Amino acid sequence: MKKVFRKYFINKENQIFLLNEIKKVDRMKGRRLVVYNAKLIAREIKVSEEYKKAKDTIIICIINDNVVKRNAYLSLAMLKYEETEEIRYVNIGYEKKEEYLTNMVKYYIIELPKFKKKKPKVADLLEKWLYVIGGD
Fold it and tell me: Does residue 84 carry a pLDDT above 70?
């Protein structure tokens, strides 16, 4: 990935944001995003400090390429459990199973070519910003 800019900030809710614009994507896109996020979390927590003090982190990648095999220009990725294999199933009585390990880590991936192909009528604030950043 060729990085164009990276902006890092913390909002009033004490969440960390990393905003990346990427022009060219390589095959290691997912790994790179995870490494960026791990560095942010490690930077925010000091040695011997409680892990509970770690801030939520949100990474927003604006990519000028189609990289995610999904039919959407905005994709949210989180740490999700895989489906339980039948051989590993144990009925302990949970009525609702947990789907996510945590919600403190979120990756928003915005693919500009898909946004342009959709030709939206600027439905919300996000689409207004995307027009400013790279819309036609």
Answer: yes
Angle subtended at Cα 12 by Cα 8 and Cα 16, rounded to the nearest 5 degrees: 30
Which residue's entry shows tokens 């207004």?
128
Rounded to two decimals, what is the model's pTM?
0.71
**How far is Cα 15 from Cα 26, in angstroms, rounded to an integer?**
28
Assess contact for 3 and 28: CB atoms under 8 A. no
Lowest mean pLDDT among 24-33, 75-84, 116-125: 24-33
Contact 59, 106 (CB under 8 A): yes
* Of 49 and 34, the one with more pLDDT: 34
Rounded Cα distance, 133 and 128, in Å: 9
* Closest to 113 measured CA to CA, from 136, 129, 92, 95: 136
Under 8 Å between Cβ of 115 and 64: no
82/33: higher pLDDT: 82
Q: How do the domains of the chain map onto residue ranges?
A: 2-82+99-134
Strands, sheet with 16-24, edge to edge from the N-terminal-most edge strand: 2-10, 16-24, 57-63, 105-111, 74-77
